[in-house]
Amino acid sequence: MRRPAFFRRREIWLPTLWGWLLFLSVGACGLVLLARHIHDFLALNDPVGARVLVVEGWMGPEELDEAVAVFRARGYQRLITTGGPIHRWPPAPGPASYAEQAARYLLQQGLTDSVVTAVPADEMSHDRTYSSAVTLRDWLNRSGMRWEAIDVISDGPHARRSRLLYRLAFGPQVTIGILATRSYDYDAAAWWRSSKGATNVIEQTVGFVWAKCCFRPD
User: Domains of the chain by range and CATH?
Assistant: First the structure.
């Protein structure tokens, strides 16, 4: 009777030095291609010709100026600003939310009260874009408005994630378009040469991947 065998020998193929060099070269080329195209992938421009432009109110003055230009050039009928509370330290007077702050700035740029509306979101420590989208959706439902499509304008590489989260909030009943502002703090074509560019693109890449594969709305 044969004894039971607990081990057996197998032949294993391992790369040679040239094989490792080939793998490393392919990997390096892939990283270069990713670096050159990831910003354009994230900074998505895909408007759907809606009548309403939603502006993420946490953006800076340059981005808000661009939103004004887009609003006028594309003939939108309404502009809605979103964003949660602003915490100032030390405490100082001013708008209570990014939505109200952006609305005030846009009015100073020549837009009128009849077209600009601020829809502030509640305090959230995470998922702030999704929270703003849900707040806007609920505000529309309470006001009795029915829109088949909206366009959202966001800060550069944050745009693709914004569209994803607005789609999750609104569902298939509303078509979500997206516009990305320019990157004013760094060269988008060579974002890796700037600490601000590298930080922003890496952060938005991780955020989009997490939202795509892991985020589940309540």
Answer: 45-213 (3.40.50.620)
